[in-house]
Amino acid sequence: MFNRKHREATSGKLIAGRLVAKMRRRLNGKVVRLDEIINGLAAEDEIQDPVATKEHLAALHPAHAAYVYAQNQVSVISEQLTGLKEMAPFVDIVSQAEDLYMPSAPPMSPLTGSYFTCWCFFDACVGASRETIGGAILEVGAAFGMHAEMSRLIRLMQESRMGFYVHKGCEGGLAVLEELVTGAVCRAIVPAGYLGRKGELWYIRVLPPPIPGGSEHVVFTTPYIILRPGLRDWLAYFNRTLSQAAHVADYERHMKYGPTRSYWNDFIFEGYVNYRLEAIYLAGLPDVPESRPHSEVNQWGSGDDLSARG
To answer: Which domain holds residue 258?
Structure first.
């Protein structure tokens, strides 16, 4: 008992530690691989057929296909692990968010599947150590033999976050994007199909090149295009929100976790303006309720599905 608690306290990952310990007890010292454990956890329930079929993946850009496959595996593993009581805190968070935001696509909800699933798996955290479903899967994978390449891809997704990027133009079918606060520049494929225009401000999750030696980043979410306010107001927002001593580090934490768990979800939901198939348009600032069309202080449009949550 002491050793188990000591390990959990050292790693700070209480849920993952308890999950791994429980699974080890169930296995009673037997050596098995992760896929065998998942099949065992499924018991009499049939594991859901993968969404990412070989035919579907073959039709995608290789960089995008690698992440789609990894996320599909996260979804399958998560479906099984969240049936264990140790994962109940995550189930509660996701269930409440699903009821509140009804994620799908506009016009029902501006929280798209690509955005919401990444938030659920990699950003929605529990406890002081900020455990996530993705982090728990990585811990289980490390303990029970997840393939190294799959672990690497899931870790890249776990370490990712949303960010604000200035569109700098297009080169060879790629969007050239400069992150607003860090200044990092990347060239990315946009699987949603919207290449955008120079000068636009995008709120997106950009994933690094998944294939060693590759150069194309991946805009994994449908782009959220900020119509207003402009760059000056957004820079002012970050200047008043982030400390000057650790500006970039604070920005990265702010973008991944927000001051509250619902902070960025509310920003999207309340800032929704319009959409097209390949992009969604937002307006407003997270800390200025009056600037967001569907905030509580703006009662106009109360008959709209997006302005009435539950």
So the answer is: 162-307
Are the C-beta atoms of 221 and 114 separated by less than 8 Å? Answer: yes
Same domain, 215 and 282: yes
The pTM of this model reads 0.88
- What is the pairing mode between strands 224-228 and 201-207? antiparallel
- Asked if 299 and 205 sit in the same domain, the reply is yes
Contact 308, 295 (CB under 8 A): no
Residue type, 290: E
pLDDT for the residue 309: 40
Checking if the pLDDT of 307 tops 50, the result is: no
- Reported confidence tier of residue 299, pLDDT bands at 50, 70, 90: low
96: in domain: no
Mean per-residue pLDDT over the chain, rounded: 88
Q: 34: pLDDT confidence band, cut at 50, 70 and 90? A: low
Cα distances (angstroms) measured from residue 229 to each of 184, 232, 240, 289: 22, 8, 16, 13
Q: Specify the 3-state DSSP secondary structure of 189.
A: strand
Core vs surface per residue 2-39: b (16+ CB within 10 A) or e: eeeeeebeeeebbbbbbbbbebeeeeeeeeeebeebbe
Contacts of residue 124, defined as CB under 8 A and 6 or more positions apart, other chains included, come to: 90, 93, 94, 97, 132, 133, 261
Is residue 234 situated within a structural domain?
yes
